[in-house]
Amino acid sequence: MRPISLLTWSIGLPAALAESWTVLASIPTGTLREHTTVALGSQVITLGGVVTGGATTKMVQVYDTTSNKWTRFADLPVPINHGNVAVVDGKIWLLGGLTSTSAAYTWKATTTAAVYDPTNGTWIPLEGLSTALARGASAVGVYNGTIYVAGGKAGTGAKSVDTVSAFDVASRKWLTSLPAAASRIPGARDHVGGAVVGHKFYVVGGRDTDTSNVKDTVFILDFEDLDAGWKTSAIKVPTARGGLATAAVGGKIYTFGGEGNQAAGSQGIFKESEVYDVAADSWAKLGPMSKPRHGTFAAEVGGKIYLPGGGTTNGLNSDVAYLDAYEP
What residue stretch is flagged as signal peptide (predicted)? Predict the structure, then answer.
């Protein structure tokens, strides 16, 4: 096999914000969008998504950051896009998402939930959300063995929701005791960013139902004071957008791309990269993405943020197999 060269470049910013992008091995199975991405050790893993031609896939694809090569894990139990996924205790937890209907590019919520153990390569079924609460395109956060699913939507044409659900990994049950103040985010959101820093869950940007109805809000939940409920930060996201990718590194939340851009010539896509310093409670603008896109998902390994796939125009039929990594 011909060695794969890595293309790296730095962006001219002040030293405090020096950064670089590296183009890596493309997804070998072809284009991919609306998947979920998680990190497990040195691996970056994509789960499901929409592939070339518009079908939703079961594929679980694995990128090794040490070798710059792709392999596969066992397929998902059902085809899923916009999945709610987290890694806890070395296992991958799938808690629903969206799946295909009989119409092209039309999706509905699935109650499917399962956990994957890489040591034996099998998916084990779990208790799913009720049909009334099933959804995808949510923000997902983990704290002390509990997976929180915030916001989302139940499928194509459905409205965004403000619901927060919590799944206990130890008992493998959905919690029914979440305090009322913690059980709803302050505004309905889907295609929203999520990150945990310390003991707080940040739900960033997103949109309310319509692709163009993008939001600049940051909702914050203190896991150590659930009774206090969600707060809305007075500090807004510099660029309101939905379908953005987010990742937390070193006490900061990095945001990339997204859709809903109304500017002429943008193709509906945001090129912006922006970072929220949690301790300073402030945002800073970074250099643009190496390839602006939406419908991708970020995962951090070793201080680098990996973004596989995505779409380069608003909506459908512009998917890529591109993989790059951002290093703050």
Answer: 1-18
